[in-house]
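Re: the multi-chain job from yesterday

Posting the exact lines I submitted so nobody has to dig through the queue logs.
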Amino acid sequence: MLASRPIRRHKVRSLLTPTRITAAILFVLICFGVVLPGSTTGWLIGAYFTLVLVTALVVRGVRQEPGNWLGRRAVRRCVVVLLAAICVALVATPAPSSPSDSSGIFILFLLLIVFNIALGRATQRLATAPDAYVDERQEAQRNRAHLISYVILALVVGGTALVADTASAQTRSWLEASLGGGGWIAFLELLFVLPAMVMAFLEPGAVADEVDAARLRGAGRRGRLAGVLLALTLAVPVVLSLGVLVIPLRTSSYTTNPNSDTPGPPIPASAGGSMSCREFYAQISVGAGVTAVINLHAEACWDGTKASETYGMNASDCLPGGTVLAVVTPTQCQRTTSADGTLSFAYRSQVSSVLLPFLNRDVTLRLVMDRNGRVEQFP
Amino acid sequence: MNNRSTSTAGLLASRRARRVVIGVVVALTALLGSLVPSSLHGFAILVVLLLAGLDIALIRSTDALAFAYRRTLDERERALRDVAYRRGFRLLGLAFAVEVLILIVTGILSYYVNGNAHGLGTAVVDTGITGRALVGMLEALLMLPTVVIAWVDPDQGADETPATPRRQWLAWLTLPAVAVVWLVLVAIGPEQAAAASRNHSSSFSVQGATCAPFAAGRIVDAEFGATVGMRVGVCWNGHDAFVFGDPTIPLPPSAIAGMGVPAGLDIGPGGSNVNPSQSDITACGADNLDDFATVSATDCTGVIDSGGILHYSVHAHVSAPLGIGQRNVTLTLVIDRNGHVLERP
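And the result, structure tokens for all chains:
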């Protein structure tokens, strides 16, 4: 009993590495940032982020030989250059002002995941491997890589922050926009991956040519799990984006008497042609996970000779109700009254996902009501 | 063994003493990186100088191992230095994550205790990263490897050779150098405009008028002095432009008439009863930052001329401790009765 204490303490200490604590704090912060707003969207993003994290942990634990191709220095250097280019692109990408602007960051983020996996395989994740798994030469390699990384990080982050923060209002504005956009992703990338990038770039031969047999043990089963999770992580956004095109539209609608809040059928115009009115509520939801909601809330009146709009059927009313990684582009927002007094309103829009903007779906919300208040089409 | 040694002759020779100093350095860095207290009232430079002094002591105690040329080190020193950089790199990530936590916690504290606007992204003026936070960040970037070396290096015996005394003495010149650089900056540093924050999107309305919020500022001495901020809600009705949300600036008769106030209602002097104080719209001095220099005598005035043009001005006096580098800062916003901005800070 007494003897187990130091072992337990040692285990706890080896679990609580600075990297793990940092990752845990950042995970909690990001989850609170996206989940706390309380929407389903927040939970979905939080769930996806958790999937990304679990995948990263599983992939990290898999030890596989880099193979001939990734073992080559030129290929490793290409991967590093591409990662650096993605980081620069992320820093240059300001905070999205609308969902349609976020596609760039999202695609860059996915590319970052892919190249990080390639880098991890090329370097055998030696930069972050526990001390017990590395020999003296490898220890020296990664220590040198950390020293160089530290200098690079200090110059890049410290230098950029100092210059941008003190130079002018424009540079401060850029800094604020960048940190609100892809800048923080690039910063986290440098914080967690820069030593591996330096190792991959500098080492002439294979970074880890003698892999410990113990590390390869069980690699097959864990590798398969990692492959499945990785495929899932990359496929989920694509599949959900395709869902915008194929998942049946979910439509809900009801009408109410403007003087009461209870839903009910339209009330016909009273005899003598006095005005009667109805309120119309409709909602069309497109997709799942990657979603767009299109709303209509309008009021129309009729007097036996003509139906007319009171509110909610104007150009300024054709707005998306809410989107998650989707874009709604109104293509038609038209209200007409025919010669026989029938009121027609059509709100037509194209819905596309942020990830696959070239594929879109037409969604039409229509209201047709005759001069006697009979609803011929809704929605 | 070469003559470079990680020993420290004197006070910081023991590991315990070095760890105490490290504790103080971490606490001071956290203070600079936090939002509590919301203002250091011009005395941040003293904290920076104290921090610089402790840094020099730590660098001396480690014989500047973290900054030494590789070829001047023996094998043991290289190994220690490399491990320090590796651990330092990992601790850097932890430091940034903890800094974010500190900002959130102290931001909440500052916002709810003093109604301070600079926490939690509520600032309306884009002042960038504050000077004190910038110093905290640079401190972490520069000093973490040295801190790791000082933390892990064991107690040194008296037989170990101290580093060259002359060079150690020279290191202390850094302190007056920092002070002089800052004084020069305060004395001749240029003023810079600060734009409205991207987060600033509050809107408000007044019956019979069109309104918009305006925010701007002026940064004195590039983050290492003070910032004078302006936050004002302006409305216009085709007859006058006027300030809303500050009862000390009277509303013009056209604005009161446009509000449709029932006859007989006591609207107070200058319409102050229908124009209550709303600090989220208009606030005088709420966006000032004075960590390295003090901002005093902040005065906000709004005058409407005969053409209905509003001239809104913020005047403030900025000076470093002991009255160094005193200057007056004025921000002026001029808007005509149709909402056209004729002059902005």
